[in-house]
Amino acid sequence: MRLSSLAALAEALGAEIGLRRGQSVEAMRERQAEKKAAELTGVAQGSAALEGQAVGRRTLEAAKRRTKYSLLSGPGLRLWA
Description:
The protein has helices at residues 3-12, 25-50, 57-73, 77-80. By secondary structure, the chain is mainly α. It has one domain (24-80).
C-alpha cells in the first residue's frame, strides 16, 4: 500500500497517521527478513529433529542466510505474511 493510499484511508476514517524516523526502510526489511527466516528454519529444524534428522548449527545458519536473502529478493508481502 502506498503512503498516499494509507493517508487517504486514514482521512476517510477520520483518523490521523504520523510517521517518525526510527530506521531506514531497508534496515526494517532486513530485520524482518532475519526474524522470518529464523522462524521458518526453526520450524523446519523442529520437524527434522522429530524424525531424527536435525542439521548442525552451521548448516542451520546457512539455511537462515539463504532464506533471508530469498525473502528480501521476492515480493515484499512475503516478509510480513
